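Case study 2.
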Amino acid sequence: MSEVSQIVFHFGSFNFSLHQSILVWLVICLIVGIVAWIAGKKIEKADPSKAPKGIVYWSEELYNLCLYVIQGNLKETTIHYLPMFGTLMVCMLLSNLTGLIGFQNPTSNVSFNATLALMFFLMIQFHGITKAGLQARLKELTEPMWLLTPLNIIGELALPVSLTMRLFGNILAGTIISLLIYTLIKSIAPWGYLGLTITPFLHMYFDVFSGVIQTYIFFTLGTYFLGQQTAEQED
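Prediction:
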């Protein structure tokens, strides 16, 4: 797949293309879905009196990890959103690590990140409207005084833009820097191959550390603003 930049489907005069980053995301989702199905079967048959092991153990660890990320923001609504956000977190974390095996990270595609950020934005607006009605939601944009309405609107729109560009910028920057270093190593061969000794540390930071941190930040910020709209709704 690393040699495939995109797949083009032809429907008469209409052409539809899937970029490599989207193909990678679809494969990750398929793999996660299959593993989750197998894990579910194992958990159903597991003996609760014995310590979990294997896929059951790792499933519990992932569950606790996802719970840790979003529970502080979503509070009593955490269980309601955990299946969706937990699945997305695992898929995004794996996608951020695909650079280790030479594939393009889905999160280095700005349209992909914008789709996830738009999901959070629409959920926040939906809960804001259903909590007190459309009129009350619009009134919030005029507080504390109507002169600040343009700034309030910009503040609302800044969330999806911020989530999109922060994730896109950090992941793409890591990809570009890694590519530049590999290009430099190739251009000054054979002496450049000594530079391969630093590439494991390079990938450790840009693919592993940065990938984990960016996943954490994305869902922490998104669920924080979502929690502000859902907390009072549950009171």
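The CA atoms of residues 201 and 207 lie 10 Å apart.
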